[in-house]
Amino acid sequence: EYRKLLMGEPRGHYEMFGAIIVSPDIESCDFACIFIHNEGYATMCGDAVISLMRYAMKKGLVKNVTLPETQVNIQCPCGPVTAYVTYDGQSTGAVRFQSVPCFVFQTDLTLEVPSYGQITVDIVYGGAFYAIVSAGQYCLDIRESKVSDLRAAADATTDILRKQLELSHPETEGVSFVYGTILTDGNDDYSEEITDTMCVYAEKQVDRSPCGSGTSSRIALQYFKNKVKVNQSRTFRGPSGDVFTAKVVKEVNCGKYRAVVTEVKGHGYFCGNSTFTLEENDVTGRGFLLQ
Ligand SMILES: O=C(O)[C@H]1NCC[C@@H]1O
What we know:
By secondary structure, the chain is an alpha+beta fold.
C-alpha cells in the first residue's frame, strides 16, 4: 500500500525498486522494516536494518536509549530481528543485528545451468533463501571478472533453481522461494582474511554491500560445513568494497532443521533526505512507462 502511494499501480519498471517502511509498535516490536520490491513481494533486508537503526536514533524514534549500545526489536518479513546500535550519548556508530534461525536447506546440489554446464550449489536460508556458489565454478574471478559477467552467471543459476527447486520453510510463510544467488571467492575456511561475496537478488539486482541476509546465510553455511565455530568472526566484502563482520551466536532449531542465530555487523551513513509529493492532479507523478 505504501509503495502504491509513492509510485502508483505497477506499470513497468521503476527506478525506485523498493521502499522500506518504518513503523512503530508492530506485534510487540519497536519497528517494522520491510523491503517491498517492485514486483509486489516483501523480503528481509539486513542492509536496511543497519541503516534504519542510525536513522531511528537520530529522529528520536527509539524509546529506551542506553549506552554504549541501544537495543531495538525489528519486525521483518522473515520474523523478529534484534538490532543493537552503538551510541555514546551523542553519536551513533556501527549496528549489529541477530538473525532469525538460519539453516542449510540442501548442500552440494548439482544443476545443469544453461551456458555454464554443471554447477554445484548450497541452498541456505538466512532470512531469505539463497544459492551459494564459488565464482570459480563459472571460470570467473570475483575480484577480477566484470560485474556483468558475474551477474549473468548468478542470474542463470537463480533462474534454473526457481524452475526446478521446490523450497519450503518449516515455520515462516511467504519466504519459500529462491531470492538470489551469492557468488563467493570460495574462501570458506576460517581465516582473519577478508572473503569476497557478491549477492545477485530479486530480479538481477546486484547488492553493492555484502548483503545482510546473504552474510547470515554464508556464515551459517560455513558453520554447518565445520569451517567456523560459534563466536568466530569473519569479514565479508561486497562489490563496492564495504565490509560486514559476522559470526554464529548459538545453535537453535527451526522445524526439523538444525539452525543457528547469526550476528551481522556493519555501518550505514546518511547521504541525504528527500520528501516525495504527489499532487492530486499530477498524472505523470503516478509513474509512466516509455516503450
Ligand atoms: O541486506 C539484505 O538482506 C538485502 N540486500 C539485498 C538483498 C537483501 O534483501
